[in-house]
From TrEMBL:
It comes from the Bacteria. Residues 31-50 bind DNA. Gene3D superfamilies: Tetracycline Repressor, domain 2. Pfam families: TetR_C_31, TetR_N. Keywords: DNA-binding, Transcription, Transcription regulation. It comes from Streptomyces litchfieldiae. This is TetR family transcriptional regulator. InterPro entries: Homeodomain-like_sf, HTH_TetR, Tet_transcr_reg_TetR-rel_C_sf, TetR_C_31. Residues 8-68 form the HTH tetR-type domain.
Length: 182
């Protein structure tokens, strides 16, 4: 093991490694030892920086959720009108960079599992959902924004798990109907 007493960015690197390990082995398979080994740091480093596994998981999932929300903000923020915003919603449903990679979906499911049981992690998902709705409300009514947010989340699950997920045309129709009813 290398000595890295003054390694700049160590805390951030540990968070990134934790996110990668969550994607690979899940929260249940995670341990301080596995993270420390992957990071090539002494075991006590994790306790020093995060106080324990809960603190590290909270930081990792917060970073992950913020990165996804930032992508969402960028996509919808680039839309100049409602038509472009609808196209952005479709891109978020169907594109790899929107959130459709298997890696990201695994991490999302891991977060949802923790959030279902622990209010601390539920705050992460609540903040994420609020940000998504605010971005959508820049282009759509609050009612439509909620419906579109639910469609995006549900479609992501179906695209990950359904052997025959809905195609882009079906989702375009769903988005148009939601927006029309506003």
């Amino acid at each position: 093991m290398k000595s890295r007493r003054t390694e700049p960015g160590r805390r951030d690197r540990l968070i990134d490694i934790t996110i990668d390990l969550i994607a690979e082995i899940g929260v249940a398979g995670l341990s301080h030892r596995k993270i420390a080994a992957r990071a090539d740091v002494p075991l006590g480093t994790l306790t020093y920086h995060f106080g324990g596994m809960d603190g590290l998981l909270y930081e990792a999932f917060t970073r992950f959720a913020n990165s996804i929300a930032d992508t969402f903000t960028a996509r919808l923020g680039a839309a100049a009108d409602a038509e472009q915003a609808q196209a952005a919603v479709l891109d978020l449903i169907h594109s790899e960079s929107g959130r459709q990679s298997n890696r990201d979906l695994v991490i999302v499911f891991e977060l949802y599992t923790l959030a279902a049981r622990d209010p601390k992690f539920r705050r992460i998902t609540s903040t994420w959902m609020r940000r998504s709705r605010e971005d959508l409300e820049r282009h759509f009514s609050p009612r439509a924004a909620r419906q579109l947010d639910a469609l995006i989340e549900g479609a992501a699950i179906h695209r990950a798990l359904d052997p025959e997920p809905a195609d882009r045309e079906l989702m375009r129709d769903a988005v148009a109907k939601i927006v029309a009813r506003g």
